[in-house]
TrEMBL record:
Keywords: Hydrolase, Membrane, Protease, Transmembrane, Transmembrane helix. It comes from the Bacteria. This is Rhomboid family intramembrane serine protease. The keyword Transmembrane helix applies. Belongs to the peptidase S54 family. It comes from Polaribacter glomeratus. GO terms for cellular component: membrane. It is found in: Membrane. One of its GO terms (molecular function) is serine-type endopeptidase activity. GO terms for biological process: proteolysis. It is a multi-pass membrane protein. The chain crosses the membrane at residues 6-30, 78-100, 107-129, 135-157, 169-189, 195-211.
Length: 217
């Protein structure tokens, strides 16, 4: 079911690899284009997009590109290349915007990675086919909708507790972007997958309404 050989998906993967490799070898390049709150709030808005094509190391890059390879072709084959690109870049921007909002009082907070964009693509896939089987810890099969809800809950917890060196806010923003854009581009999902749309919408709405209060809890 999951297809990764689509030319558009492969072009995005190649762009991520090339820009990330440049950043591996040239810290000045990485520093110039990474997401950094203070710089973005200034005049360097391009960092909200450019940071999504940079990664800290090969493992970080490989994990994101593997997920994109597995899920990207599926989204493209169902919705088309234009919709895929809208969801990818829209989710990337949504991840950056949510990160900016959550860390707005931390001018030196910085991040890189395609996780926000990839999270949006993964959620688009699950919205299109919520019963797809995913492997938890590469061994335990679970339905896509269970993974989606669990991922949201874990990301909210990780953002609150600052678990690991991970941009949980970008993941959340990306999932919100992917969720909203997929429904906008394919509104039939409101009728074909109504129950799952409602289930996933509840934590997203709560996050949007009360997310700012997480830091004070």
């Amino acid at each position: 079911m999951m297809q990764g050989s689509n030319p558009i998906v492969l072009l995005i993967i190649i762009a991520n690899v090339l820009f990330s490799m440049k950043g591996f070898d040239n810290y000045a390049f990485l520093d110039k284009y990474k997401f950094q709150v203070g710089r973005v709030l200034g005049k360097e808005k391009i960092r909200m997009i450019s940071s999504g094509f940079l990664h800290v190391d090969w493992m970080h890059l490989g994990f994101n590109m593997y997920a994109l390879y597995m899920f990207g072709g599926f989204v493209d084959s169902i919705l088309g290349s234009i919709s895929f690109l809208i969801i990818y870049f829209g989710s990337l921007l949504a991840g950056s915007l949510y990160t900016l909002q959550y860390h707005k009082n931390e001018p030196y907070y910085s991040a890189v990675g395609a996780s926000g964009a990839v999270s949006g693509i993964v959620y688009a896939s699950i919205l299109l086919f919520p019963d797809m089987q995913l492997l938890l810890f590469f061994a335990i099969p679970i339905p896509g909708y269970v993974f989606a809800v669990g991922y949201l809950v874990y990301s909210i917890y990780g953002m609150k507790k600052q678990v690991g060196n991970i941009g949980h806010a970008a993941h959340l923003g990306g999932t919100i972007g992917g969720f909203a854009l997929t429904l906008l581009l394919n509104p039939m999902l409101f009728t074909t997958n109504t129950t799952f749309v409602i289930i996933l919408a509840i934590p997203i709405l709560l996050l949007l309404l009360f997310g700012d209060k997480l830091k004070s809890l």
